[in-house]
Amino acid sequence: MSATVQDIKIDELCNSILRISKNIQSVAIINKLGRPIEKVTRDDGLKQLPQPKEEMFFMQCVLEISMGKDYDSEYGPINYHLSERENLTMITFPMRDHVVLVTTKKDTVPISLAKKIVTTINGYQTS
């Protein structure tokens, strides 16, 4: 039986996002406490962080989205948050009371990819 987030089969969502582009390295669904509840990584995926550091990383992603919600009434809700680093790009997406974290290779067109991922997430939230 697949885990769900308010009727969303999260393993199916993660795999659907992973299939959008071969440049996507991993997809994680993170709860509001910063704990991953699902994580899918390609075989050639990114280097794993030590457990305490990974927990802090996930908490940071949740915090960025959470703090951004304070400005929803002025600017509208966040579609995604983009962070480009030297070796990879990270895109976080709010999904109800969770966050979807997608890591991609550096040679990705992030805005185009983010819009495709938003469409995929929205499709799961409305089905």
Characterization of this structure:
The protein has helices at residues 10-18, 51-68, 72-75, 110-126, and strands at residues 4-5, 8-9, 24-30, 36-41, 81-84, 88-95, 98-105. With 127 residues, it is an alpha+beta fold. It has one domain: Beta-Lactamase. The strands form two sheets. Strands 4-3-7-6-5 form a five-stranded antiparallel β-sheet, with helices on both faces. It has a two-stranded antiparallel sheet with strand order 1-2.
What is the structure about, briefly put?
It contains four helices and seven strands, in the order ββαββααβββα.
In CATH, the topology is named: Beta-Lactamase
Total discrete domains: 1
How confident overall, as mean pLDDT? 89
Strand order of the largest sheet: 4-3-7-6-5
| H/E topology pattern | EEHEEHHEEEH
Fourth-level CATH superfamily: Dynein light chain 2a, cytoplasmic
Share of residues in helices = 25-40%
Helical region count? 4
End-to-end span in angstroms?
A: 18 Å
Low-confidence stretches: none
CATH class: Alpha Beta
SSE inventory with pairings:
Layout: E1 4-5, E2 8-9, H1 10-18, E3 24-30, E4 36-41, H2 51-68, H3 72-75, E5 81-84, E6 88-95, E7 98-105, H4 110-126
Antiparallel strand pairs: 1-2, 3-4, 3-7, 5-6, 6-7
